[in-house]
Write a structure and sequence with these properties.
GO terms for molecular function: carbon-sulfur lyase activity; metal ion binding. This is CENP-V/GFA domain-containing protein. Belongs to the Gfa family. Strand 7 and strand 8 form a beta hairpin. Helix content is 5%, strand content 35%. Strands 6-7-8-9-4-3-10-11 form an 8-stranded mixed β-sheet. It has a 3-stranded antiparallel β-sheet with strand order 1-2-5, with no helix packed on it. By secondary structure, it is mainly beta. The structure holds zinc ion (2 copies).
């Protein structure tokens, strides 16, 4: 992590800019079907933070929230994206009180270098959905079906 302990980030069009302060609670790759749909890719790479660690610097007016109700747990996941360029930015489980203060931030929108010191996943979740051609990332812990915003969160 950077020495200042602040990570900046933005969406593709740069209208939305944010800062996160302090270390993440958890970093993870999610192989669930919904993360695949929302990224349009093979998995999502997120970092979980306390909501008060996230500061939106600009672009609040272009943020849109999609309430994702089609989850295995039945919990609603609020997926926030830039309505101008469509970048997925944040996700939170606002219907679930136990994680009401947690936000997942897409690592792809963070301004990071390529090194493991900048960012690396600690966990892989929904591994039962992982594409066969993707090998488990070295150094991660796997879970067949962890619901990040559900009650059985990894401690
Ligand atoms: Zn944008
Ligand atoms: Zn997912």
């Amino acid at each position: 992590m950077s020495t200042t302990n602040i990570i900046t980030g933005s969406c593709l069009c740069q209208k939305v800019r944010y800062e996160v302060t302090g270390p993440p609670k958890m970093t993870l790759l999610c192989h669930c079907a919904n993360c695949r749909k929302v990224t349009g890719s093979t998995y999502m790479a997120n970092a979980l933070y306390q909501k008060d660690q996230l500061h939106i610097i600009s672009g609040e007016d272009v943020l849109k929230v999609y309430k994702d109700n089609n989850t295995e747990s039945g919990n609603t996941v609020a997926r926030t994206f830039c309505s101008n360029c469509s970048s997925p930015l944040f996700a939170s489980g606002d219907s679930n009180r136990t994680v009401a203060d947690v936000v997942a931030i897409t690592s792809g929108t963070m301004d990071l270098g390529p090194s493991r010191g900048d960012w690396a996943p600690q966990f892989e979740v929904y591994c039962r959905n992982r594409r066969e051609w993707i090998t488990p990332v070295e150094g991660t812990m796997g879970s067949e079906a962890l619901e990040v915003f559900g009650p059985s969160q990894v401690e």
